[in-house]
Write a structure and sequence with these properties.
Family: Belongs to the peptidase M48 family.
Strand content: 5-15%
InterPro entries: Mito/Outer_Membr_Metalloprot, Peptidase_M48
GO molecular function, one term: metal ion binding
Number of helices: 7
Keywords: Hydrolase, Metal-binding, Metalloprotease, Periplasm, Protease, Repeat, Signal, TPR repeat, Zinc
Number of domains: 2
Low-confidence stretches: 5-13
Number of strands: 3
Shape: globular
Protein name: Exported zinc metalloprotease
């Protein structure tokens, strides 16, 4: 009896989750677009993001091969701040770091911290290409994508547990 009840419950939950994924496809597209300007303040405050950013900067300094060449550091900070001056929703000061890494990559994390891999300098054909990568990372910070991700995970955690039954 309990086995059949559990099967029915699981089948009902799967159907409900499937419908929840399909139904938005029929909604008005304007209703399904993310609100890019709303911050994810219900999970993390700006102050908490700054504290987490400080923690991760300490971790980065202790584990990553940072490049401390004064000319390069000055250049990426000047370019980064020029880009930030044109960004909307800037709520934190920005800090730019360069690490010695052969992968063409960059990442941003809490508190306005942006990390560029040195390979970007070797393979970018011009400043505009480098600036486009930096602007992309700056937008992750100004749109608070990490805080939004944490908020989404917090909201979906109960569904994850139900799905595990």
């Amino acid at each position: 009896m309990f086995r059949q009840l559990k099967k029915n419950l699981v089948a009902t939950l799967i159907a409900a989750l499937a419908l929840g994924q399909v139904a938005p496809a029929f909604a008005d597209p304007a209703d399904t677009l993310p609100d890019m300007g709303t911050s994810a303040g219900s999970t993390l405050s700006i102050g908490q993001e700054m504290q987490m950013g400080d923690f991760y900067v300490r971790q980065l300094r202790g584990s990553a091969p940072l490049i401390n060449d004064p000319l390069l550091v000055q250049y990426i900070n000047a370019l980064g701040m020029r880009l930030v001056s044109h960004a909307d929703s800037v709520k934190t000061p920005f800090h730019f770091f360069l690490i010695n890494n052969d992968e063409i990559n960059a990442f941003a994390f809490f508190g306005g911290n942006v990390v560029l891999h040195s390979a970007l300098f070797r393979y970018a054909d011009n400043e505009s290409q480098l600036a486009s990568v930096m602007a992309h990372e700056i937008s992750h910070v100004t749109q608070r994508h990490l805080a939004r991700t944490m908020e989404d995970q917090k909201r979906s955690a109960p569904l994850t547990w139900v799905g595990a039954l």
